[in-house]
Design a protein that fits this description.
The structure is a homodimer of 355-residue chains. Chain A is an alpha/beta fold and 355 residues long. Chain A contains 14 helices and twelve strands. Chain A has three domains: 2-78, lambda repressor-like DNA-binding domains (434 Repressor (Amino-terminal Domain), Orthogonal Bundle), CATH 1.10.260; 81-183 and 315-342, Rossmann fold, CATH 3.40.50; 184-314 and 345-351, Response regulator (Rossmann fold), CATH 3.40.50.2300. The longest helix of chain A is centred in the middle third of the chain and has 17 residues, at 213-229. Chain A binds a DNA duplex (16 and 16 nucleotides) through residues 25, 27-29, 37-44, 46-47, 51-53, 56, 71-72, 74-81, 137-138.
DNA sequence: ATGAAAGCGCTAACAT
DNA sequence: ATGTTAGCGCTTTCAT
């Protein structure tokens, strides 16, 4: 929307004052009459076809400017059978990083002159409805589904339609869909190893909701690290978390109220829970890392403010990768169907190590 | 997208397996043939016109289901000259709450069966381009512009087009645009009064960027509170801020490095700066509220984690209000053109008061 | 209550 | 290089 001489001219002229009655929109036909060429030629100019004599082009461009012509998206989409827009469906709950991912998606989309339609699926039925809506021919050219909880079966069926689908944070076997994941395993491994290397011997793990792919993979990462270090994970110290701040808060609160001794360290499988833990401790006059070392996962913005050591999820990059996959799928470019992005341990002060 | 019997049926049937070749999309014509009525009647059924005999309706509905028909958005938009979608343009930089606002926008939009196109304007030229793009007839039915830095003149010209525009956090005089603001003045007043009532006598103010409406209004609120309390704001304690975390961090860092004594209290005109201040203090072994009371503004998520007393900006409501205004403008409903939403002081522990 | 037909504004063969 | 024309899929008068 920027390189073209055409667009340049149009956006420069969009705000010229009242030419023509504001009643009827200006169409290619108007432009063609004004410039004495056919609508086909006008269309060619608009679409930067090389098969237009410079002189003609100039004439058309001038008419476009004079009339304040702007091309109609719907008509164009209808005629070309493509919308130049990609749909993005987010889960209703904000895991804290959807806006970052969205930015990433946008960055790449813009670079390829694609627009974004976004929707939030609130609840499972909502997800289905939203997705189904977008699948309706004509709205979008591709779909990016972020971390939704819908069944594999649903995704598979959706994928059978003509519309390319990119999944973020959720692979689906046996389906013709692209997916962008992060390396949860090695991220969790790094976090756990960090704690182990620091010499902690009673390490609690604040787990995620059962059946979530992130939760599962992160747990596996913990086991990997433990096995490598010859450390045995104490089942009694694996707390059932839910990925919410409140979950971490309550669990830690209960623990402290019960009078049980704090573990040496804790690995909360995502940042919000880690922060809930911190808050519960603070309210009990305890602090991190003095009374317990703490590591989180995701590196949401607040993690930095709180000095929380955590595993960085490259949200921006995930968005970009998903966006790229989507556009490539649409334009028929080569696309790697499964991408796994690396994470990185960010050491701050919550483990007692200098930052 | 939910009440209609029609849509219900369609979304239920969207994933039925392979009926018809996946090559050619199913159109109203197909449905009309299958059900032995005209396309006009099919259209009537689709749009829930009452002028269709129940028996006919059923027949058409069945055909729709059998064929897996889905209406084409572009064609519909072209024929009706409306898109049922509203465009949202956000600033490139994330003031930390755009995602909340977006949720609010979405909530209302969904309730009225509107879709969302979002764009981020990176930089001033980008803003113009994005807005201009959306102004192009046919993309969206209305535009919500969030807190952008473009000139009044630009907004005014844009407003002269047929497209309804809603501004968030930025009123424009003399233009036919709706705006949704928050009551910065009374919010800042409340924060300042809080500090004053606590008995602080050397209160620093970490200001915002010059010329920003939020910054200006919040400053005015401070003055109001001061005047009412008979307190004189010390010019030397008014620091020039920029609304960024880094700004607060550096300013406080420099202050501390310079060896100057800390003020009793500080009012940072937004949360990120307040958090930067906290971090700088922490790195110097100082803490809030022990060494200085601190209040922020906006109540971003992290404020809660950090126990920062702050003025709550009702982001979700702003979004909803903007969305409502936009839809009403489109549908011709009654709309209050200027809305000012109330803020609320949230007392946490950063002033030493119990939470 | 239903049908015939004329667009909505643009693009893309095909022809020249 | 340019023009003619037939759609794209849906809505909407205007008849009946």
């Amino acid at each position: 929307m920027n390189v073209s001489g055409y667009t340049q001219d149009v956006s420069d002229t969009i705000f010229r004052d009242g030419n023509g009655d504001p009643g009827r929109p200006v169409t290619v036909l108007d432009v063609s009459r004004q410039s004495g060429v056919s609508t086909a030629t006008v269309s060619r100019v608009i679409n930067q076809s090389p098969k237009v004599r410079p002189a003609t082009r100039v004439r058309v461009l001038k008419a476009i400017e004079q009339l304040g012509y702007m091309r109609n998206h719907s008509a164009r989409a209808l005629a070309r059978q493509k919308t130049d827009t990609i749909g993005v469906v987010f889960p209703g709950i904000d895991s804290g990083f959807f806006s970052e991912v969205l930015k990433g998606i946008n960055e790449y989309a813009v670079s390829r002159d694609y627009h974004l339609m976004v929707a939030f699926s609130q609840g499972s039925q909502g997800e289905h409805d939203r997705v189904a809506e977008y699948l309706q021919a004509g709205r979008v050219d591709a779909l990016i589904l972020m971390n939704l909880g819908m069944s594999d079966a649903f995704v598979r069926q959706a994928a059978q339609r003509e519309l390319p689908i990119v999944l973020i944070d959720r692979p689906v076997k046996d389906a013709r869909v692209a997916s962008v994941m992060i390396d949860n395993r090695s991220g969790a491994d790094a976090a756990m190893s960090h704690l182990l290397e620091l010499g902690h011997s009673r390490i609690a793990i604040l787990a995620g909701p059962d059946g979530t792919i992130d939760a599962d993979q992160r747990m596996e990462g913990c086991q990997l690290a433990a096995a490598r270090a010859g450390y045995e994970i104490d089942k009694g110290l694996v707390w059932p978390g839910n990925f919410f701040w409140e979950g971490g808060y309550e669990l830690m609160n209960n623990w402290l109220e019960s009078g049980k001794p704090l573990p040496d360290a804790m690995f909360a499988l995502n940042d919000p829970m880690a922060m809930g833990v911190m808050e519960a401790m603070r309210e009990h006059g305890l602090s991190v890392p003095n009374d317990m070392a703490l590591v989180g996962f995701d590196d949401v913005q607040a993690a930095r403010y709180l000095g929380l050591t955590t595993v960085h999820s490259p949200m921006r990059e995930m968005g970009r990768a998903a966006s790229q996959a989507a556009v490539n799928l649409v334009t028929g470019g080569r696309t790697q169907l499964e991408q796994v992005l690396e994470t990185e341990l960010i050491v701050r002060r919550s483990c007692g190590v200098d930052r």
